[in-house]
């Protein structure tokens, strides 16, 4: 009841408000009388139902039309055409056929002076990671030099086996070999010997050498690599020498830089049954222990190698030792890209000499040598290298070297056959003398790649020497010059040349000892400089078989390489080379 009363009162209040507003507006025109409003029923509001639109409205069409099908017909008419397109073909670059590589080859050659050469090489892949290489080299001649009164033939044969194994991080290998050399001391300075005396001389000398070496390298380790060699040398006069060399290399990081360090252990020892006078034997033993640290600095165009070498050298026979320190500093700077590169350095070393090395330089030494190391105090040099043109390279350099105890080959004083007790005393043989020598040299070299088939090179070097106790730098030339060229004429023909010049050399000749105790006559002799022109040519039938011919000493000179030892004059040889895959 109270609710209805409130609704009625609210309605009356609103109506009276409306009437009052309306009255105020219309009073201006007319007067409105009083009306009575009777409320019959109270207001009751309701909510109408919501109208929901259907998603798919219904279609209430009176008619539904059907879509008609339409068909299309094309009437093709042939049209004659005279256009004929050319068949396309891909353009290609003509490439030279790739040369097949073979794992083996054999070469044989024969020439005048009853000379012969034989070379054989094969590389066998045992599996994916292992290889075995075998090589055989032979060179011999039966002699025949004009006016030589003794046997001048020689024989040189060498065989080598090499094994290599590659692992993921470790690579290692080993080598073993043997060399046999036969030479004759055919040089005689005094031609007054009669034929009977000449016939009594046994001028033959035989050298033997066997070696065993090994090497190993390791990735991602401070230990980088190591090399080891042992060599045994002996001859027909009971001379014997042992040489052992070990060189491990390590790499240490220090202050953000890598220091490469080589350690060296080098031993040589041996004996000769006689000294040259025949009054006793000779024994020697030298041990070098060294370390060589170095630091490489790379800064843009500048490369600097800072290093040093420190040795302790021991004379095992004399129970004496000393410390040697050498600089090893080199630098290079690119002034104009690869066209002008300046370089300089100062380096020193303690060089181990051996009987084997002396024989390879001069096969006519007597088996009575003094063996001692050479103290190369420093070798300073400065130079320029680079390219004049993209296919023309050059290198010029000046050197100044100071060496203590440098070995020099010098003639022995021979002893007449009736007095001599050893065969090597009767002919011209060479001793080794040591002296302190300073050397200045100037070097120049030019290499030209005319094209991919023609290469040419020229180089020369001039020397001046200063000795301490010896009168001259025996058998060292003042000038060396060489020219070489290789020309691949076409697919089959090839040719080449090697021309070299060696300048004058000096030696000392002492009159033979005749056992009468007369004072000897000593004179300095001059060995003339000489040119040696060597040419070779060949024809390649296919990638397997080729033939060659070569001529040495084309100028037919009878020059002396060593005092009293003339060389063979014009030497001609021809032969063939065959390449193949071993086992195929």
Brief overview:
This protein has 584 residues and is mostly beta strands. Helix content is 6%, strand content 54%.
Explain how this protein is built.
With 584 residues, the chain is mostly beta strands. It has one domain: Maltoporin, Chain A, CATH 2.40.170. Helices cover 6% and strands 54% of the residues. The protein has helices at 2-26, 195-199, 355-361, and strands spanning 104-111, 115-125, 130-141, 154-166, 170-184, 204-218, 223-235, 240-254, 257-272, 282-299, 302-315, 320-336, 340-351, 374-389, 392-411, 430-451, 454-467, 479-488, 493-502, 505-510, 522-527, 530-540, 545-552, 560-562, 565-566, 571-580. The protein has a 22-stranded antiparallel beta barrel. Strands 20-21 form a two-stranded antiparallel ribbon. Strand 18 and strand 19 (493-502) form a beta hairpin. 13% of the residues are buried.
Mean pLDDT: 86
- Give the helix proportion (percent range): under 10%
Structural class call reads mainly beta
- The outline comes out as globular
Strand content: over 45%
Order of helices and strands: HEEEEEHEEEEEEEEHEEEEEEEEEEEEE
Protein topology:
Elements: H1 2-26, E1 104-111, E2 115-125, E3 130-141, E4 154-166, E5 170-184, H2 195-199, E6 204-218, E7 223-235, E8 240-254, E9 257-272, E10 282-299, E11 302-315, E12 320-336, E13 340-351, H3 355-361, E14 374-389, E15 392-411, E16 430-451, E17 454-467, E18 479-488, E19 493-502, E20 505-510, E21 522-527, E22 530-540, E23 545-552, E24 560-562, E25 565-566, E26 571-580
Antiparallel strand pairs: 1-2, 1-26, 2-3, 3-4, 4-5, 5-6, 6-7, 7-8, 8-9, 9-10, 10-11, 11-12, 12-13, 13-14, 14-15, 15-16, 16-17, 17-18, 18-19, 19-22, 20-21, 22-23, 23-26, 24-25
